[in-house]
Write a structure and sequence with these properties.
Length: about 140
């Protein structure tokens, strides 16, 4: 099979966490450089190893301090090519937290602030990517 090449494909996972009808957004710090600093996104990160959902829950714990129980629901996948030339396969999950008290968030160095927002708060927010904004709008609609 001449011409067949394996391609590196990084996998990113994100979770849309909903509590009291609002979604948790995280604002990126400059830890990855200035191109993402100040933009909003969702808890998650690159898949590393093991069970994908367990890996996602680990990322959520690292970024927010939350220990989520149960399994999030698969929402959507996407593929995007970053400026570094690497294609990334993204997976969005939904985690419903109900109408109870919003949990305490303890941010890691990766983020500078957080907010719970409804659909009106999403409109003017600068997101890390169009897929993030689109999935949040879809969940809140």
């Amino acid at each position: 099979m001449h011409g067949f090449k394996h391609k590196l494909l990084a996998v990113m996972q994100h979770v849309v966490m909903v509590c009291q009808g609002e979604v948790l957004l995280l604002r990126y710090s400059g830890y990855q450089g200035n191109r993402v600093a100040g933009l909003w996104g969702l808890p998650g990160g690159h898949y590393i190893a093991g069970d994908p959902v367990d890996d996602l829950l680990r990322e959520v714990s690292e970024e927010t301090g939350l220990q989520l129980t149960g399994k999030p629901e698969l929402l959507k996948t996407y593929v995007v090519k970053f400026p570094d030339g690497i294609e990334r396969f993204g997976v969005f999950y939904l985690y419903q937290m109900g109408n109870g008290t919003k949990p305490v968030i303890n941010l890691s160095y990766e983020h500078t602030e957080f907010r719970w927002t409804d659909l009106s708060g999403v409109k003017g927010a600068a997101f890390i990517g169009p897929y993030h904004k689109g999935i949040v709008e879809e969940v809140l609609s």
